[in-house]
Write a structure and sequence with these properties.
Blueprint: H1 9-20, H2 34-46, H3 57-64, H4 70-73, H5 95-105, H6 124-134, H7 144-150, E1 155-156, E2 166-169, E3 184-190, E4 193-196, E5 205-208, E6 214-218
Helix pairs in contact: 5-6
Length: 225
């Protein structure tokens, strides 16, 4: 199911399909926002569907020809590619890595506030800074692009990812951060899922990795010392 707040290549495909059908979603950016919802509602109304703005089984069947289409269930984008899932607190990673993960996941539900670094609210890099400190890593606060540069020497490929690695993500933005540079950062948890925060509506959360927008990834060497 695709709904407001969903991100990724599934949403990009939805937006392209809507645009091709004459229902402008306001851009093809992989972000299911207000304009995409409005386009879905217009499509649903035109096809005599319940105009709730959610791409579920009935709307998917009309759009893609199948009620179980890969275009809305995420399986094609978020299939496991690395280690199995990490269950915080169960010691399934090296001690410092596990503390890093546990500290971040424990912030689930905390509000997103730009520039915040905890403990009551976080932005994406503030959450990384906080969790690294809790894991005993001396870390000076920087941005997502700053962490990308800081750990450029310990990059890993998608196939090499381990829980606790940093995912550097680029979304279109108004901050002058160009393609290839990270505008967002998350922690890989394993099994195609990550921990991060970038949305005031949702706050800190565990979610499927948005592979379509991942630029690269790095390991934090200090977590293995």
């Amino acid at each position: 199911m695709l709904t407001v707040g969903t991100r990724g290549s599934d949403v990009s495909r939805l937006q392209k399909t809507l645009k091709a059908a004459g229902f402008d979603p306001g851009g093809i950016d992989g972000v299911f926002g207000r304009k995409t919802k409005a386009a879905v509602q217009r499509y649903q109304h035109a096809k005599h569907l319940s105009a709730d703005g959610v791409v579920g089984a009935h709307t998917s069947k009309k759009l893609f020809g199948s009620s179980s289409s890969k275009y809305f269930d995420g399986k094609s984008d978020f299939a496991p590619t690395g280690p199995g899932p990490v269950n915080p607190g169960h010691g399934s990673a090296p001690a410092r890595v596990q503390r890093f993960i546990d500290s971040a996941v424990a912030q689930t539900g905390k509000p997103y506030v730009f520039g915040a670094e905890g403990p009551r609210a976080f932005d994406c890099s503030g959450l990384i800074h906080y969790a690294l400190k809790q894991a005993g890593v001396a870390d000076s606060r920087t941005t997502a692009a700053g962490y990308q540069a800081r750990f450029a020497g310990s990059r890993v490929s998608r196939s090499q990812l381990k829980p606790g690695d940093l995912l550097f993500i680029h979304y279109p933005n108004s901050r002058g951060i160009g393609p290839g540079k990270a505008s967002h950062i998350e922690i890989y948890l394993g099994n195609g899922r990550s921990m991060g925060t970038d949305n005031p509506r949702e706050g800190a959360r565990v979610e499927p990795v948005d592979w379509a927008h991942v630029v690269n990834a790095s390991r934090v060497p200090q977590l293995y010392r």
